[in-house]
Each structure stands twice: as structure tokens, then as C-alpha cells.
């Protein structure tokens, strides 16, 4: 039995705890050689990378990212994205921070050839975001 649609709260399905949960996501986006990623690429969730040499992928500036997110963005908001490096040779991708970003632990974040990396991004202040390497 479904719960009424009035009142507060949100329910997926009609309360069946065994019900599978699906999200509708767009098709992965692509990137090749050294590039500044767009906010749309990062927010898409999956970036299929095919560099033909060692590459640098620069995150969009916080200003551009927040413009793409609109008024909904608040301190503490968080999203994840993956970079899948499909290079068939030894071409690593170095993630470069755009203006307004910091990375936990500092240093260089590399997505090695024939591997992938999962990242978390969290808004930490008025014009700042934190990048986390999750896997």
C-alpha cells in the first residue's frame, strides 16, 4: 500500500524494502588529451578518457561549477564522479585543481593507464570545494 502524497517526507516506490532502487543517469562523457573539464563533464558522473599521451585534466573553476549547479548549491553539498582511463599505453592522467579547489592530502592525483578513479567533491565554503580521492 502506498503512503499518501500529502505531508512532508519522501518515499521511493510504495515502501517495499526489497524493491530495487535505480537512478536515471546520462550516458558517459568523453575526454582525450590534456583539457580543462567542463562543469557538465564533471557533473555527468562518468568520464571515459582516451589520452594519446600523458594528460592533465583540470577541474573547472568553482565559479563555473557553481554556475552550472545554480541556486541549489549550499555548503556541505556533495557529489561523486569517476574517471576511467582507457589508454592502451602507459598514459597517465594527472588531475589538476581549478581555482577554488583543494585536495585532501595534497599532492598530485593520478589516474593510471588502464585503471579508474572515483572522486568525491564537497562544497566547503562560499567559493571553495574539496576534492577527495575515494578509490
Characterize the structure shown.
This protein has 135 residues and is mainly beta. The N and C termini lie far apart (40 Å). The protein is built from two helices and ten strands. It has helices at residues 39-44, 62-69; strands spanning 29-31, 35-36, 46-49, 55-58, 78-85, 93-96, 101-103, 109-111, 115-125, 128-133. The mean pLDDT is 87. The protein has one domain (29-133).
The largest sheet, given as strand count, sense and whether it forms a barrel, is: 6 strands, mixed
Element-level helix/strand string: EEHEEHEEEEEE
* Helix coverage percent: 10-25%
How many DSSP-defined strands?
A: 10
* Sheet with most strands: strand arrangement: 1-3-5-9-10-7
Q: Low-confidence segments, ≥5 residues, pLDDT <50?
A: none
Mean pLDDT: 87
Structural class: mainly beta
Shape annotation: globular
Number of discrete helical segments? 2
Query: Radius of gyration from the CA trace?
Result: 18 Å
How much β-strand is present in the residues?
A: 35-45%
First-last Cα distance: 40 Å
Supply database-style keywords.
135 residues, mainly beta, 6-stranded mixed β-sheet, 4-stranded mixed β-sheet, 2 helices, globular
Gist?
This protein has 135 residues and is mostly beta strands. It has two helices and ten strands.
Can you lay out the helices and strands and say which pair or pack?
Elements: E1 29-31, E2 35-36, H1 39-44, E3 46-49, E4 55-58, H2 62-69, E5 78-85, E6 93-96, E7 101-103, E8 109-111, E9 115-125, E10 128-133
Parallel strand pairs: 1-3, 2-4, 3-5, 4-6, 7-10
Antiparallel strand pairs: 5-9, 6-8, 9-10
Amino acid at each position: 500500500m502506498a503512503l499518501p502524497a500529502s505531508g512532508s517526507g519522501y518515499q521511493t516506490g510504495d515502501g517495499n524494502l526489497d524493491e530495487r532502487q535505480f537512478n536515471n543517469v546520462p550516458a558517459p562523457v568523453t575526454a582525450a588529451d590534456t583539457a580543462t573539464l567542463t562543469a557538465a563533464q564533471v557533473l555527468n558522473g562518468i568520464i571515459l578518457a582516451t589520452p594519446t599521451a600523458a594528460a592533465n585534466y583540470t577541474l573547472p573553476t568553482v565559479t563555473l561549477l557553481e554556475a552550472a549547479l545554480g541556486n541549489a548549491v549550499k555548503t556541505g553539498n556533495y557529489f561523486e564522479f569517476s574517471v576511467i582511463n582507457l589508454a592502451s599505453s602507459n598514459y597517465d592522467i594527472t588531475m589538476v585543481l581549478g581555482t577554488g579547489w583543494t585536495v585532501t592530502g595534497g599532492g598530485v592525483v593520478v589516474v593510471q593507464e588502464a585503471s579508474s578513479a572515483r572522486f568525491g567533491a564537497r562544497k566547503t565554503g562560499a567559493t571553495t570545494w574539496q576534492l577527495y580521492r575515494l578509490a
